[in-house]
Amino acid sequence: MALSQLSRSFTGLLVQTSSTCLRTFSVSAVTAAIQKMTRVRVVDNSPLGNTLHHCPPRVIHVYKKTGCGKVGDTVLIAIKGQKKKALIVGHKMPGKRMTPRFDSNNVVLIEENGNPTGTRIKVPVPTFLRRWERTNSKVLAIAHSFV
User: Does the predicted TM-score (pTM) go above 0.85?
Assistant: First the structure.
């Protein structure tokens, strides 16, 4: 009788160990750049961007099919209880070769028609944004330095 109880306890032990061995874990790649709920830093001198925030501005939507925004993409951010459109002008994630990598995720607030809210950008802007000059011409005009 003691032998049958001992074999039952070993069977349960083997089943438990075999279930832990069969568990798998995700090995998906790291998502690139800026996605939903990413904290960002507003780098223009707009009145909404210059005030101290109780909680940092966060991305609530990326206007792209993939859901990951890179430099030059438009995002919707939540800042001080308001929804504002913003243009990404720098991110932490390393990009293609010979593109700058920034210390923070930088955005510039823009209005619905594409005009920037502020009058000056406080940080350097990547040079390759000049390729899309038609869409970002007003943002590039208020930038004081390029990297």
Answer: no
Indicate the burial class of 116 (C-beta count within 10 angstroms; 0-12, 13-18, 19 or more).
buried
- Alpha-carbon torsion angle 30, 89, 44, 83, nearest 10: -60
For 123-137, give one letter per residue: b (16+ CB within 10 A) or e.
bbbbebbeeeeeebe
Q: Is 80 exceeded by the pLDDT of residue 128?
A: yes
Length of the chain in residues, anyone?
A: 147
The one-character DSSP state at 128 is G
Six-digit token string for 17: 């160990």
Instruction: Provide the token pair at 91.
Output: 């991110």
Residue with tokens 């349960």: 12
